[in-house]
Design brief:
This protein is α+β, with helices and mostly antiparallel strands. Helices cover about 30% and strands about 30% of the residues. It has 7 helices and 10 strands.
């Protein structure tokens, strides 16, 4: 008699209390496996009950920008314009992203009327912001598609279908260093200078998974 049949027959004759304990144990093992599978990034999280797609789906603003391990203040400052405008990377659950100029929350809160501004066209951005100084905006442009790479260890940004024609830029493949609800850190090699760029973000919205 096959081992599976023997075990199944034995299970049928177990007391109900033992059956409940076995089911609870299996549930704990399954949940533990899901949690431990998320513990793979260099800087965390150690444990998260939120899926990777939920954690990454948010509006992100840059808090640090490093080139070859050193903070580049010139590039870092290029993500904001004065105290009123900032570049915001919006990553949606559906696999699309937008990279837009928006009013900062501080500026919105300091005005008598609630300002909201989105410039998702390169021409509009250029009117308010010298975006050509920003290395990340040049690589991502104002919109496109994204997807997780192998085993969710990296994220790929590119054209709306993640393809490229001859002469066009290839999708940007970024290693994920940290993927928390409150912090995102990615690393990539910039094709223009072959240097290692590391970008740290924090969410503009405090709740993860808000963008559908």
């Amino acid at each position: 008699m096959p081992l599976f049949v023997k075990l199944n027959t034995l299970y049928l004759y177990l007391p109900n209390i033992m059956k409940i304990k076995i089911k609870n144990l299996l549930i704990i093992v399954a949940i533990s496996s899901l949690i431990l599978s998320a513990c793979k990034y260099d800087e965390g999280p150690g444990i998260s009950l939120r899926t990777k797609r939920v954690r990454i789906s948010n509006e992100w603003i840059v808090t640090d920008y490093q080139v070859n391990g050193n903070t580049d203040n010139a590039i870092k400052s290029s993500f904001v314009h004065g105290d009123s405008l900032q570049l915001v990377l919006s990553i949606n659950k559906t696999g699309k992203y937008e990279y837009n100029l928006q009013y900062t929350e501080a500026y919105q809160n300091s005005t008598a009327w609630n300002k909201y501004f989105v410039a998702n066209q390169t021409g509009l951005v250029n009117l308010y912001y010298e975006y050509t100084k920003n290395s990340l905006f040049k690589l991502l442009t104002s919109h496109g598609a994204w997807s997780f790479g192998s085993k969710h260890s990296n994220i790929v940004f590119g054209a709306p279908d993640l393809s490229h024609a001859e002469g066009e830029s290839r999708p940007l493949d970024c290693k994920i260093i940290m993927l928390k609800a409150k912090n995102l850190k990615i690393e990539f090699v910039n094709p223009s200078d072959q240097a290692k760029h590391t970008v740290t973000f924090e969410p503009r919205n405090k709740e993860a998974g808000l963008l559908k």
